[in-house]
Amino acid sequence: SSGSGRAEKMKILISEIPDEGLELTIDETLESDVIKLVSPVRGQLSIRKIMPEVVIQGEITASAEFECSRCLKNYTSEINAPIIVTYHPAEELKAEEGKREIREDELETGFYFGDELDLTELLKEQILLNVSMKPLCSETCKGICPKCGTDLNVNKCSCNLDKTDSRLEVLKELLRRE
């Protein structure tokens, strides 16, 4: 096959969701410009129609490669993304021009156009929402020495990194001279 068949699987026709809902097993290789995914996105989603809304719940996981914000090494870590999203028909947006109240339980809201729901965007979005802004290769990562650049997880350096900031030292000197 031309390979386009796989992507089609991620598109859901709302009119074809049965009354009892759909259970989907996700196992998709996704590309993202923002994050380097190194495994397929896997998980379970249940899709229910409460017309005109479509509710998607479940959990997905994927492995991605990050750069540690302390020591700058690349490392691979798993992302878990719990999903609860309510989709509304996009016509609602036009019809009500912002008059719509957002209910408490609707923090995650999406919109669908016509009869089609594309899960690819949902999966990418949810993965990104669960990525830490300051990724750390480990909670205890010591980072790199701001003076000499030694990776402090591997070696100690001889830099004298007292807790006091060198700028304070200058102040202390001046105060001493007073």
Overview of this protein structure:
The chain has helices spanning 5-8, 91-96, 119-129, 166-177, and strands spanning 11-13, 22-28, 36-37, 41-50, 53-67, 74-89, 109-112, 116-118. It contains 4 helices and 8 strands, in the order H-E-E-E-E-E-E-H-E-E-H-H. The radius of gyration is 25 Å and the shape is elongated. The strands form 2 sheets. Strands 2, 3, 4, 5, 6 and 7 form a 6-stranded mixed beta sheet that branches. Strands 1-8 form a two-stranded antiparallel ribbon. 19% of the residues lie in helices and 34% in strands. The N and C termini lie far apart (83 Å). By secondary structure, the chain is α+β, with helices and mostly antiparallel strands.
Percent range for β-strand residues: 25-35%
> What spatial form do the alpha-carbon principal axes imply?
elongated
- The tally of strands reads 8
Individual helix count: 4
- Poorly predicted tracts of residues: 1-7
Rounded to the nearest angstrom, the distance between the terminal CA atoms is 83 Å
Give a quick account of the main beta sheet: strands, pairing sense, barrel closure.
6 strands, mixed
SSE succession? HEEEEEEHEEHH
- Assign the structural class, choosing from mainly alpha, mainly beta, alpha/beta, alpha+beta, or little secondary structure: alpha+beta
Helix percentage: 10-25%
Question: What is the rounded Rg?
Answer: 25 Å
Mean pLDDT: 85
What secondary-structure arrangement, pairings included, does this model have?
Elements: H1 5-8, E1 11-13, E2 22-28, E3 36-37, E4 41-50, E5 53-67, E6 74-89, H2 91-96, E7 109-112, E8 116-118, H3 119-129, H4 166-177
Parallel strand pairs: 6-7
Antiparallel strand pairs: 1-8, 2-4, 3-5, 4-5, 5-6
